[in-house]
Amino acid sequence: MGATPTQVQAVMDLGLLSIDGTDTAETAAFNASYGEFYQGEVNDPYQVAAAVAKLVEPVSMTLAATDAALDIGAGSKLVDQLVVTGVDFSGASLTFANLTLVSSDTGVVTVDMAGLVTAVADGSANIIGTTVNGISSSVDYTVETTV
Predict the structure, then answer these.
(1) Predicted pLDDT at 30
(2) Alpha carbon distance 131, 81 (integer Å)
(3) What confidence score (pLDDT) does residue 51 get?
(4) What is the 3-state secondary structure (H, E, C) of the chain?
(5) Which residues of the chain have pLDDT under 70?
(6) Spatial separation of the C-alpha atoms in residues 9 and 128, rounded to whole Å
């Protein structure tokens, strides 16, 4: 399965793919069978872009809470900042831009795409982060009201 024209353009913009006048692409492509890089010339720039895109897929990811106990009482701690750790195949660190974040119960906690978790009401909920290639991690939160 090839990459979309938008993905091909993004890879070209990064300087990872160039197409000469005969529609031949020359780039570093990933050989999944052997886990090695090779220089190659191919006639389908979409396949090359898909191979290059594979290089930036996450290979590991974990989420952690700064403080998983939130309080909605007076003088309380209403928010927490998630921390993401992990790398892609090239070794670059992941950011929240690499993830989809969801709350298992938005009536207890919500999460934005920058990893900011906000207490809503008493209870327990999980925040689940998932990468584009399906690696996931979760953090358990407990919200209580103190007086």
Answers:
(1) 44
(2) 18
(3) 65
(4) CCCCHHHHHHHHHCCCCEECCCCCEEEEEEECCCCEEEEEEECCHHHHHHHHHHHCCEEEEEEEECCCEEECCCCCCCEEEEEEEEEECCCCECCHHHEEEEECCCCCEEECCCCEEEECCCEEEEEEEEECCCCEEEEEEEEECCC
(5) 1-55
(6) 31
B/e letters for 93-112, b = 16+ CB within 10 Å, e = fewer, are ebebebbebebeeeebbbbe
58-144: CATH topology is Immunoglobulin-like (2.60.40)
Domain positions in the chain are 5-55, 58-144
